[in-house]
Amino acid sequence: MDGMLATGTEKMLARAADGIGWMTFNNPERHNAVSMEMWAAVERILSAFAGDDAVRVVVVTGAGGKAFVSGADISKFESERSSEAAVTAYQDQVKRVYDLLGDFPKPTIAMIQGHCIGGGTALAVSCDLRICGETASFGVPAAKLGLGYPLHGLRRLVDLVGPAFAKEIFFTAKRFTAEDARVMGLVNRVVPNDALEAFVTDYATTIAGNAPLTVASAKVIIGEALKDRGAADEALCDRLVKACFASEDYVEGRRAFMEKRPPQFKGR
Questions:
Q1: What is the pLDDT of residues 124-134, one digit of tens each?
Q2: pLDDT at 85 (0 to 100)
């Protein structure tokens, strides 16, 4: 799949090229706030990228340059989140998206420019890597809105920044700068705004050119390493490592190294 992907809504854009799947939240007039139809489209896009062998890495971003994602579209709360049943349906949809992204079989990169607030921060935390522009800002204003965050969402944040910074983020509900986020470990890299897309494209291209089985196994094994000792699936990890050594790509990698040429990996 190369080119644009039909998403079912103009509020979400998706395209694939050169091994990279690009998913863009396209609601810039509302700082890319997310409605139910957008969350549903995200689920469809990720499923399409997961099933496309030509897509080896996914970049998630927001349109307009002023925001990554600013969280849920509060203007939709009356129609989408006013009753208990509606709140449950909304939370179930969002959890499916976060789980899809968190468990996605391929590397994911959040490319963050501008505001990354509430659900936007949760979305970014669900990605493998976070790279932001120097004027990006982060925050979770749940304590100013009376919202509760479920365990699965908080666990990802705690795994990333630790309990002390997670408490600071939630207790204060403050906005944090890109440098604050770098110090916390919330983002991997901070780069000049005008260099952000080129930097992320280079990172994604580098990842897409590496051995897919090795990259995928590392993602799974690192996830297992976060679990309590004794809870990790060591047999699964062993199988993934053995699959790398038994692959055609391992043969190709060795030959390319000896022949002093770039390897051409096939993911098998």
A1: 999 999 999 99
A2: 78
Unique residue bearing structure tokens 């120097």 = 134
61 close to 25: Cβ distance less than 8 angstroms: yes
Measure the CA angle with vertex 75, ends 69 and 79; round to 5°. 120
pLDDT reported for residue 3: 81
Closest CA to 74 of 127, 141, 136: 141
Give the count of alpha carbons within 13 A of 1, CB side only.
19
Question: 197 by DSSP, 3-state: which?
Answer: helix
Task: Tell me phi and psi for residue 116, to 5 degrees.
Answer: -135, 90
Q: Phi first, then psi: what are they for 112, rounded to 5°?
A: -115, 120
Runs of H (alpha helix) within the chain: 36-50, 77-80, 84-102, 119-126, 142-145, 151-161, 163-172, 178-184, 196-208, 212-225, 234-245, 248-258
Contact status, residue 243 vs residue 189, Cβ threshold 8 Å: no
Tokens of 172: 């204060």
Q: Who contacts 220 (Cβ-Cβ below 8 Å, separation ≥6)?
A: 236, 237, 240
How many CB atoms within 10 Å of residue 268? 10
CA distance 228 to 254: 35
pLDDT range class, residue 14, cuts 50, 70, 90: very high
3-208 folds as 2-enoyl-CoA Hydratase; Chain A, domain 1 (3.90.226)
Whether residue 77 has pLDDT greater than 80: no
Residue with tokens 């854009």: 13
Structural domain boundaries in the chain: 3-208, 212-258
Position 81 scores a pLDDT of 53
